[in-house]
Amino acid sequence: MTGRVNTVLFVNINTNPQPMNKIITIAACFFCIAVFSQVTNSGKPLSWVTENMEDLEPVTMPQFDLEALRAEDERNKDRADIPWRFGYEFLVDHNLGNSGTWHTLPDGGRIWRIRYRSAGAKTMNFLFSDFYMPKGATLYLYNNGRTDLLGAYDAQQNNEQRVLGTWLVKGEDIWLEYYEPADVAGRGRLEIFKLVHGYRAASDAMSDDQGLNTTGDCMRDVDCPMPDIQAYKDINKKAVALILVGGSYFCSGALINNTNNDGKPYFLTANHCYSDPALWAFRFNWISPNPVCGEVGDSTSNAPGFYQTSSGANLVAKYFYSDFCLVEIPSQLPALWDLVWLGWDHSDTTPASTFSIHHPAGDIMKVNRDLDQPLPSIGLFWTVENWEMGANAGGSSGSPLFDNNGRVIGQLKGGSSGCNGTSSNNLHDIYGRFGISWEGGGTPDSRLKDWLDPAATGAMTADYYIRPDHPVDVELNLESLLTAFCTDTGFATVNVINAGTEPLQNLQLSYSVNSGPPQIVSWTGNLMHGDNFPLQLPPLNGIAGQNSVEISVVTANGVNDPNTSNNTVSGNFNVLHFGTGNVHLHLHTDYFGNESSWELQDANGALLYSDAGLSGDSDYEYDFDLSAEGCYNFIMSDQHGDGMCCSFGPGVYRLTAANGALIAEGSRFGFYDFVSFRLFNGLSLAENALQNVNIYPNPSQGLVTVEQPGSNALDYVVYNVLGQETMKGTVAGQRSVLDITAAPDGVYIIKLEEKKTGRLINFRLIKE
């Protein structure tokens, strides 16, 4: 448009609008909500399965003095006492309100996307100064070619500081995509304050994995054979992680055990790696399956896009003088990652020999071996005079030093070791002594003993900890929860993972909608340890509004699952119902109202009402007579592709039903906002009356009161968790008593049906 300048910070929108006749095809789509506990590049962003998502012009980052950074890196290349820098940090100020583009889905959910391009970047990662995910919301990061995907980040990454640091995504053109369900619209917070341009990571000729083969030829992959420590090495490598600290630096560290042997996720690294740990990110088990052992050659990664990553930690204790830092990872680390918590020895006894496991320069996991005793010659540190095999580099900082019994005795402070061809350069490294850190500075926040010996047992050593294996152990993840267009039906897909040691050959799952009677789904097959498969449940019958779904393991291989911590998942899907009659549209245009237009269509795409050529900064009110039951589509369009808010005036639209209920509202979108809704002639008074029924006390010992505002006859059926009917009958009057004292203690579902209307309501009851 002549005379118009787009002033949205860093955002350039594609001004080629999508043809309106293509929009209607959205009506045939299902829309998916993906839910995951840890960030392991699972699932797919919603935009990948949604038609007619508009392309976005990227936010283009400026050039910077790369040669100056490389010169500084060259000066620091032999220093193991500082974190290894891989990126240049851009400060930005982008959030859900001032940047990016919104897209509204037919079920009322919304997608927000923003795209960044930084020429020459090998990777990008992002730091959020405000991060909050409401339940059901997800965040994905992926490159423009969709060859590298990270996510989903969800509510389990929320923390008290409301900040987050992501892992790396490969490429110079990266998308961020946030999804929020309709019932939590507007509650999420994303404030991007730092974008990191990864200028060194993988060598130009190498694979997908950032950092692979960045170190010297004397380095040995962790699976290289070392017979005298092989057993210890094969265990301890499962505790070590590469850490992304400060947004643009790498360090190493490891999970460490405590005397309670409870798998509390304490993680030990170096104090000189410290920055706000809430912004850290961890990558576990990055190990080459084809090890290169101190020779010319390139390591390979364990899988393309293999990520076992977790974001965020809380500071527990740190001490400058022995250079230790202990943090706690607050989120659940999945059992299938097969992690180990390291043993330790704080006796300060000089061991016969040592070894170390680390990620030098952000490379795939390596191992060092020294066949001699370390020297405690510098009061606070162990000195490894030279490594017979391997060497350290920047990024190795914080990695554990093990004695000849495989126990931690220190963490890397710094040193001068490195490669001289395929051999070590015979220079020393120093490690903060675990025995010094045990007492530290004499306070809980500056020493280890309060945390690693919480019961004050006085133990000098602890062995490693592995979470117990169960022959039968089924883990469930809710992979997707789908709402079919203009129906009351939802579709759920659950990801079934065999975390047990035995093959999984049969499975019974129980699922219920809105705490209704449980339904049973059976599966037979042969699922080996660590394998998984998607299991789609039968269609879920919902009611108007938000519907809850809970899915649980009943039996696996014919027995109860002994590990119940990962047996149950839940989620919500929405059914949009409104009464027939007058539907009202309130519209306030932005300063360029002539760019705005809208259409109201029936389910077949036939045009019912429309308007265009509007004035700027003006109010419009419209009433639509929609007396026929059925589905309708409302489409709000903006010719310029920047929605109706906020750089060019506070535009907004608001669509309400006959009873004043909000159908949809919006302002921040791209070329269009698309909303589908259903009108019906409902028995709202009867339904409302049934919604006011109450059952108490709950939990109870078996005598429960059913209270209702009227005195209608209600049929009831009581089900156990297997969906088996245990009793039934009829109650009437405002207060009635049900007696289930003869039933065993447990969880029951009470289904009430109003005889006059046939409407249903369910209650979950606990008998104890």
UniProtKB/TrEMBL annotation:
Keywords: Signal. Residues 695-756 form the Secretion system C-terminal sorting domain. Coiled coil: none annotated. It comes from the Bacteria. It holds the Pfam family Por_Secre_tail. The keyword Iron does not apply. SUPFAM superfamilies: Trypsin-like serine proteases. The keyword Signal applies. This is Secretion system protein Por. It comes from Flavobacterium album.
